[in-house]
DNA sequence: GAATTAAAAGACTTTTTTGTCTTTTAATAA
DNA sequence: TTATTAAAAGACAAAAAAGTCTTTTAATTC
């Protein structure tokens, strides 16, 4: 469904939301440990998200990654688009370039509702909401 | 959603259903042309599907790939499982190994209905049905 | 302002996926 | 039974995705 890169990105965003809700910042090492990902790899991903304004960061001592209140309202759709592009929102399920409502591939109609549901879900789900459930221990980002 | 390999596989299965409905067989070259795919690549994919009994084939002159009536009832789920495994049916949306109803990832609940819809759709959609729509020119496998 | 800390940048490697080519095997037709 | 046809098998190559490492830049603290 998502690329590995995108999975890490979503997990990292939720973790950062959680760790920075008191106004502090999280370092890349803690993020990597917290979401069980390769340190340098998630660093690269977050740099890209930073460039696109999806996550905030600050260098130097007491520096790290963080999300402000508006960042906590970021939808999953925003993250997925930034990382994987919008294939999942609009690409053809059978990989045809010419696929459209007027010139549909054999799976076009079967996909319409699924695609709509995925899009709705990604748009309405916000990083902050997921972080709150995590805080209540209703969901988990890793084993423990 | 699907791997490129799986996209080609589905397209090829529909094309084979169409071309072999009169009891004849289609050669790999015609398949490659008919679905706009690399010839040797789709050959390899169909060999694997042949090994798994998802498609029938015969060597020699008048040989080629074909589907009998029961093959025409093959669901997309069967093809997808044979090619991509069952990640799409049961894997965690965030790539967590430990994800389950009892120990859900942050997206687990959000994914349940989507996954169910995808599974239903893949189970109920049969190659033969898609081929019939194609015959009626209601859908397309390529440009023309 | 010098030392320290932590992210940014970017080169590099490994693995997986996708795609290509050649040889072998099996069926049919003459 | 020999020639021909077409799939099966498998080695190989290219491209993309995933992951690693080193150097540079920008903050903070002393």
Commentary on this structure:
The structure is a homodimer of 144-residue chains. Chain A is mainly α. Chain A has a single domain (4-135), classed as Winged helix-like DNA-binding domain superfamily/Winged helix DNA-binding domain (Arc Repressor Mutant, subunit A), CATH 1.10.10.10. The first copy, chain A, contains seven helices and two strands, in the order αααββαααα. Chain A has a two-stranded antiparallel sheet with strand order 1-2. In chain A, β1 (56-58) and β2 (64-66) form a beta hairpin. The first copy, chain A, starts with a helix and ends in a 9-residue tail after the last helix. The structure holds a DNA duplex (30 and 30 nucleotides).
Question: Quick summary of this structure?
Answer:
Two copies of one chain form a homodimer. Chain A is mostly helical and 144 residues long. The first copy, chain A, has helices at residues 4-19, 28-35, 39-51, 76-84, 87-90, 108-124, 127-135; strands spanning 56-58, 64-66.
Explain the layout of strands and helices:
2 copies of one chain form a homodimer.
Chain A: H1 4-19, H2 28-35, H3 39-51, E1 56-58, E2 64-66, H4 76-84, H5 87-90, H6 108-124, H7 127-135
Antiparallel strand pairs in A: 1-2
Helix pairs in contact in A: 1-2, 1-3, 1-4, 1-7, 2-3, 4-6
The structure holds a DNA duplex (30 and 30 nucleotides).
